[in-house]
Amino acid sequence: MIKERINIENIDGQIFEIKIVEPDNSKPASFTHYLHNHKNGVSQFYKKDALAFVKEILSREYPENQITNKVAEEALQFLIFDLNKSVPFPAPEKPKFKFIDLFAGIGGFRLALQNLEGKCVFTSEWDKYSKQTYKANFGEIPFGDITKEKTKSYIPDNFDILCAGFPCQAFSIAGRRGGFEDTRGTLFFDVAEIIKEKQPKAIFLENVKGLRNHDKGKTLATILNVLREDLNYYVPEPQILNAKEFGVPQNRERIFIVGFRNDLGITDFNYPKPTDKTAVLDDILEENEVSVKYYLSTTYVQTLKNHRARHESKGNGFGYEIIPNDGTANAVVCGGMGRERNLVLDDRLTNFKPITNISGEVNREGIRKMTPREWARLQGFPNNFKIIVSDAQAYKQFGNSVAVPAIQATAQKIIEKLQIK
Questions:
Q1: Could you tell me if 266 and 170 lie in one domain?
Q2: Within a 10 A sphere around the Cβ of 32, how many other Cβ atoms?
Q3: Which residue, of 81, 101, 123, is where some domain finishes?
Q4: Which residues, at least 6 apart from 271, have a Cβ–Cβ distance to it below 8 Å?
Q5: Active site (annotated) includes residue 168
Q6: Alpha-carbon separation of residue 201 from 43, 114, 213, 227, 264 (angstroms)
Q7: Which residue segment(s) compose the domain that 352 sits in?
Q8: What's the domain count of the chain?
Q9: Residue 335 — left, alpha, or beta (φ > 0 → left; ψ -120 to 50 → alpha)?
């Protein structure tokens, strides 16, 4: 089944369609990575598979011709096009530093570091829907599962910053020192392995706030021990930053871990101070009337009210929440409660006829879910960021992403320490 299509010019100047049959194959990723890096030495890491990919395409398009390696080489040069004119978020023309984007999601790290004139030279993400969004906005197909040695083999040398919003897992460290070997079988091990092999100047890791106390603090202690003792990086005490202090009205606390290679002589680092605490919900709400599909049914509203009442009777504060226009949203997360704890009142609806199957009628109180675009804004994504997936996937993607302004403020501090100008 065909999963991907890319329109490009062939050697005769005609437009034809590349049909990618295997979306997780490394060749399509290598092809787009090559196109993005054809002006720098990084392209050598992707050229072999990029050539093989082009050769396959030309053989399909011109079955009557014998496509030699030389023909594929010449064709690849013709296939290089100006990506900066075809994607919403192109790399800077004259980048000041290079970085890689692991567990990339939909590109929150990439957006932030490109804003600071950085060039992304490698991306990996396993989720197929996130890959679609990433490609639509950056013109690049991420490589797949970073735990695979083949995926790691495409990572180039000599990049400056490693970025990773890796998932948190417990380590089996009972009775041991909590070092590099004790992280095997976890996703952090793969990050550490890449750091050990590639020795970037700086590392920038992001995780949930709960990492600090995960497994009674053993998980974070192991991570810091590996980075400091095994990998020889200067790692100041990690810090929890809140997105609401960096220009978006979302109460989202995340732990940031920054490190610098010891031979650089960096012995101090200050995380960014809050830059903007003034944003409120009204700043990110849709300007026009939104679809009736975002409005809750009367039955659902009553279910939420009953649910909260049951918890309140037990002394719990758990339940749905309507955020006032001058307030701050709760953290956007995956799952239904991420939306139910971020409901809004919007009385602009004029057509109450349901367009989805609901139980009951559309409520007349004006209670609705936020739209995916509003979630994007809560995470600091600009309005021209393309949302090309279903609402369900979009909520998941933005809930899993990072708050771009907080990432960018921290990355700015890293760049200053590296004296990148």
A1: yes
A2: 22
A3: 81
A4: 239, 241, 256, 258, 410, 413
A5: yes
A6: 21, 18, 28, 13, 8
A7: 287-370
A8: 3
A9: left
Question: 388 lies in a domain?
Answer: no
Find the distance separating the first CA and the last CA of the chain, reported in whole Å.
Answer: 47
Asked whether the beta carbons of 379 and 398 are under 8 A apart, the reply is yes
Are residues 112 and 404 in contact, defined by beta-carbon separation less than 8 angstroms? Answer: yes
Q: Which residues contact 309 (CB under 8 A, 6 or more apart)?
A: none
- Pairing type for strands 161-164 and 239-242 reads unpaired
**Other residues' Cβ atoms within 10 Å of the Cβ of residue 148:** 14
Nearest Cα to 274, choosing from 247, 237, 251? 247
In a domain, 55, yes or no: yes
Catalytic hit among 120, 163, 168, 334? 168
Nearest to 400 by CA among 389, 412, 414: 389
Q: Are residues 61 and 166 in the same domain?
A: no
Please report, in tens digits, the pLDDT of each residue of the chain (421 residues total). Answer: 334 444 433 333 333 344 443 444 678 888 778 877 877 778 777 888 877 887 777 777 667 777 776 766 666 665 555 455 678 999 898 999 999 999 999 999 999 999 999 999 999 999 999 999 999 999 899 999 899 999 999 999 999 999 999 887 776 655 456 666 777 778 899 999 999 999 999 999 999 998 898 888 888 998 999 999 999 999 999 999 999 999 999 999 999 999 999 999 999 999 999 999 999 999 999 999 999 999 999 999 999 999 888 878 776 767 799 999 999 999 998 765 678 999 999 999 999 999 988 888 999 999 999 999 999 999 999 999 999 999 999 999 999 999 999 999 999 999 999 988 6
Q: In the block, which residue shows the tokens 């971020």?
A: 342
